[in-house]
Design brief:
By secondary structure, the chain is α/β, with parallel strands linked by helices. It has two domains: 11-92 and 169-243, Rossmann fold, CATH 3.40.50; 97-166, Alpha-Beta Plaits (2-Layer Sandwich). It has helices at residues 35-47, 60-67, 97-107, 136-148, 171-178, 199-207, 229-238, 240-243; strands spanning 11-15, 52-55, 74-76, 81-83, 91-92, 117-120, 125-128, 153-158, 161-166, 188-193, 211-215, 224-226. An eight-stranded mixed beta sheet has the order 5-4-3-2-1-10-11-12, with helices on both faces. β1, α1 (35-47) and β2 (52-55) form a beta-alpha-beta unit. The longest helix is centred in the N-terminal third of the chain and has 13 residues, at 35-47.
Length: 245
């Protein structure tokens, strides 16, 4: 892998949230974001002239609550939600009949009574099993069988979570959408993420002449790597764009 670049004024920065800006937690609402991360992002939002976005599997409203008072351009639910500019309204897809059917099936399954957690994301749904890792096989089996009967949906396997979503968007699509418009257009994209779902974003950034940065271990298409969330924070804070602002 190549040496990590320093952020430069002509770059566009795209950041995953869980596992990148915040350590993973057993339940999505339990994560903690350091004040140092929020401060660094606030500086970078200014010095990159607004070309900084969070691209996450979470709903955008959750991202806003964790990064408050900061508001950034964002893609939520792997691109099913989108806010092109920090001050813009959130645009989101409506839940499909297939997603509604899957939510009903999951509520009536044994998974939730055994300790798995269903996260209703509107147009997508995720089942987390970090608190009960022994349920992984059951979660994968039930979600796979359900989606086989709902061909408009597909599964995204993350760290201790399986998510179902329509075939309409991914993080790569979100990055390409941002890059078509100001303030992102014409810049070199940098995408930082830790999970399988971030690979599409990294690949898109590199296809567009930028770089993907993988957080943590595991195979990746990314050309760069950071060890963990602490290393991401240190890399952001070490940027000349932060120190000079």
């Amino acid at each position: 892998m190549k040496d990590l670049p320093q952020l430069e004024p002509d770059m566009a920065l795209f950041l995953d949230f869980d596992g990148t800006l915040a350590e993973l937690a057993p339940r999505p609402e339990d994560v903690q974001v350091s004040e140092a991360i929020v401060a660094a992002l606030s500086h970078l939002q200014t010095t990159l002239d607004g070309a900084l976005a969070v691209v996450s599997g979470r709903p955008i409203e959750q991202i806003d609550s964790f990064l408050a008072p900061l508001h950034l351009p964002a893609a939520g639910l792997h691109g099913l939600e989108h806010r092109a500019r920090a001050e813009a309204a959130i645009e989101r897809d409506e839940p499909s009949p297939e997603i509604r059917a899957l939510k009903g099936l999951l509520r009536n399954s044994s998974l939730l009574s055994q300790g798995a957690f269903m996260e209703d994301k509107g147009p997508a749904v995720a089942v987390h099993f970090r608190a009960v890792p022994e349920l992984e096989g059951d979660v994968v089996r039930i979600m796979t069988e359900a989606v086989e009967a709902l061909p408009a949906l597909h599964l995204v396997h993350g760290k201790m979570v399986v998510e179902a979503k329509p075939y309409t968007s991914d993080k790569g699509y979100a990055v390409r959408s941002f890059m078509q418009h100001a303030p992102f257009a014409g810049r070199r994209p940098v995408f930082i993420g830790d999970d399988v779902t971030d690979e599409d974003g990294m690949a898109a950034a590199q296809d567009l002449g930028g770089i993907g940065i993988k957080v943590g271990e595991g195979e990746s298409c990314a050309l760069g790597r950071l060890e963990n969330v602490v290393a991401v924070q240190a890399w952001l804070a070490a940027s000349d764009l932060v120190s000079e602002s």
